[in-house]
Design a protein that fits this description.
It contains 10 helices and 8 strands. It has 275 residues and is of the alpha/beta class. It has one domain (38-261): Glycoside hydrolase/deacetylase (TIM Barrel), CATH 3.20.20. The strands form 2 sheets. Strands 2, 3, 4, 6, 7 and 8 form a 6-stranded parallel sheet that branches. Strands 1-5 form a two-stranded parallel ribbon. Helix 2 packs parallel to helix 8, helix 5 packs across helix 10 and helix 7 packs parallel to helix 8. The longest helix has 27 residues, at 3-29. The radius of gyration is 20 Å and the shape is globular. The model is unreliable at 264-275 (pLDDT under 50). Bound molecules: zinc ion. The site of zinc ion (ZN) has 5 residues, from loops.
Length: 275
């Protein structure tokens, strides 16, 4: 190799590698794009309608406080629950459903589902599906990736199961701060007809979140917005569940639940991991 070609190779190769890494990082964190399958961060509509969503619960105290605010305003929301938390708080998960809210799958252990094997990711989804069915969820179960992270394997598995990946376009970032003014203004500045709004009812106690949710609902109501569940929002946007794939997913979740009741499988409470 002559000197010029060697210099081009020595400079170009790390630059290409860096570009690829930056591209993968951007892809993993995009709320509005994935390589395969269906991803929705909002829906196209001119109607003043939004979906409020809460992640990482159910958590005693915080989830109940959120339910109280929603009930007072007569608002239905969607809760993307973590399987481990459903296992610890089955009655609370069932109560959220009984109060008319939608429950979605937010993985079993809330690991980032990138650079993980297909079997690990499949177990994370299926175990939580089974738990959601056990607390009463019927029909299509929507999925949201922990931290919104995905690359290729997760979208591929979701596509195989005919599953929709639900992200968000109006984000409070209430996992970073509990400053009520900041949380409120972040949502109000980005919300528009068809938006999916993100708050958290899991993790540590979030008094700022509770106040911000109350204020956001009041301000959006004053602007004549309606609140619907994510599935209702998708329907308003002309996106409907595929009955066939829904039935197939439900049947697989039932088989998994049956196997899990017989005391097997990875990721169970005896500490076996799915890798
Ligand atoms: Zn989360």
């Amino acid at each position: 190799m002559n000197r010029k070609r060697w210099i081009r190779w020595a400079v170009g190769t790390p630059l290409v590698a860096l570009g690829l890494l930056v591209g993968l990082w951007q892809l993993s964190r995009s709320w509005s794009f994935q390589l395969l399958g269906e991803l929705y961060d909002r829906v196209e509509t001119t109607e003043k309608v939004v979906a409020l969503t809460f992640d990482d619960g159910p958590r005693p105290g915080q989830t109940e406080a959120v339910l109280g605010i929603l009930k007072r305003h007569g608002v239905k929301a969607s809760f993307f629950m973590v399987g481990e938390n459903i296992e610890r708080n089955r009655e609370l998960a069932a109560r959220v459903l009984a109060e008319g809210h939608q429950l979605g799958n937010h993985s079993y252990s809330h690991h980032r589902l990138i650079f993980k094997s297909p079997s690990f990711i499949r177990e994370e989804i299926d175990k939580t599906d089974a738990l959601l069915r056990e607390v009463g969820v019927e029909g299509e179960s929507l999925f949201r990736a922990p931290y919104g992270k995905k690359l290729v394997v997760l979208p591929w598995l979701l596509k195989q199961g005919g599953r929709k990946h639900i992200t968000f376009d109006a984000v409070s970032r209430d996992d970073e701060t509990q400053d009520v003014d900041l949380l409120t203004s972040r949502v109000m500045e980005s919300v528009r007809p068809g938006s999916i709004i993100l708050f958290h009812d899991g993790g540590r106690n979030k008094p700022g979140t509770l106040q911000a949710v109350d204020i956001v609902i009041g301000r959006l109501r004053a602007q004549e917005y309606r609140f619907v569940t994510v599935s209702e929002l998708l329907t308003l946007g002309g996106i409907t569940p595929a009955a066939e794939t829904t039935a197939r997913t439900a049947a697989r979740a039932r088989r998994r639940a049956h196997r899990s009741r017989r005391g097997g499988g990875c990721g169970d409470r005896r500490g076996r991991r799915c890798r």
